TrEMBL record:
<dbReference type="GO" id="GO:1900376">
    <property type="term" value="P:regulation of secondary metabolite biosynthetic process"/>
</dbReference>
<dbReference type="InterPro" id="IPR002481">
    <property type="entry name" value="FUR"/>
</dbReference>
<keyword id="KW-0862">Zinc</keyword>
<dbReference type="GO" id="GO:0000976">
    <property type="term" value="F:transcription cis-regulatory region binding"/>
</dbReference>
<protein>
    <submittedName>
        <fullName>Fur family ferric uptake transcriptional regulator</fullName>
    </submittedName>
</protein>
<dbReference type="Pfam" id="PF01475">
    <property type="entry name" value="FUR"/>
</dbReference>
<feature type="binding site">
    <location>
        <position position="134"/>
    </location>
    <ligand>
        <name>Zn(2+)</name>
    </ligand>
</feature>
<feature type="binding site">
    <location>
        <position position="99"/>
    </location>
    <ligand>
        <name>Zn(2+)</name>
    </ligand>
</feature>
<feature type="binding site">
    <location>
        <position position="131"/>
    </location>
    <ligand>
        <name>Zn(2+)</name>
    </ligand>
</feature>
<feature type="binding site">
    <location>
        <position position="96"/>
    </location>
    <ligand>
        <name>Zn(2+)</name>
    </ligand>
</feature>
<dbReference type="InterPro" id="IPR036390">
    <property type="entry name" value="WH_DNA-bd_sf"/>
</dbReference>
<dbReference type="InterPro" id="IPR036388">
    <property type="entry name" value="WH-like_DNA-bd_sf"/>
</dbReference>
<dbReference type="GO" id="GO:0045892">
    <property type="term" value="P:negative regulation of DNA-templated transcription"/>
</dbReference>
<dbReference type="GO" id="GO:0008270">
    <property type="term" value="F:zinc ion binding"/>
</dbReference>
<dbReference type="GO" id="GO:0003700">
    <property type="term" value="F:DNA-binding transcription factor activity"/>
</dbReference>
<keyword id="KW-0479">Metal-binding</keyword>
Length: 139
């Protein structure tokens, strides 16, 4: 498990420090995107700044992408296609008003190969509504 994470980090030109491995391991076990506070509350012995720096490094190296939600930033692991030059997370991010979870909806995305005479560096697709699980419990 740990060596698998080390390889992932090395592939993204990131030195696999123990903190980075821990944060990566935790994020990979989560289905929803998490805020800094949510990630911090999982780690008893790490300070906020260290976790924040780890997330910033991950974002620069194409390991996590951030999702801006009003005043909160949430983080979710990227796929292998992202690297330190470009993020390709051009998919919908969905916020559920009931369970308050933000998830990546990879099947709804902006086409990567779209031809434009301008350069797109970042795309934000964001939707709010009620997720599958909460919809079921409403019925
Ligand atoms: Zn990405
Ligand atoms: Zn929900
Ligand atoms: Zn995403």
């Amino acid at each position: 498990m740990k060596t698998h994470i080390e390889d992932k980090l090395i592939n993204k030109n990131t030195k696999p420090t123990s903190m980075r491995i821990l944060v990566y391991d935790f994020l990979s076990s989560q289905d929803a995107a998490l805020s800094l506070s949510e990630i911090e509350s999982h780690f008893d012995h790490a300070d906020r700044t260290t976790i924040y720096r780890t997330l910033k490094t991950f974002e620069e190296k194409g390991i996590v992408h951030s999702i801006q939600e009003n005043t909160t930033t949430k983080y979710k692991l990227c796929h292998d296609g992202c690297d330190e030059t470009t993020h390709k997370d051009w998919h919908l991010h969905f916020y559920c008003k009931i369970c308050k979870q933000t998830t990546c909806k990879e099947d709804i995305s902006f086409p990567e190969n779209v031809q434009t005479n301008f350069r797109i560096d970042e795309i934000r697709l964001f939707a709010k509504g009620i997720c599958e699980t909460c919809l079921e419990s409403l019925q």
